[in-house]
Amino acid sequence: MKEKRLTRPNDPQLNRHLAAVVARQTERGPRLDKAKSRHEIDGAVALAMAIDRAEAPKPEPAQLLGWL
Question: What is the pTM assigned to this prediction?
Answer without folding.
Answer: 0.70
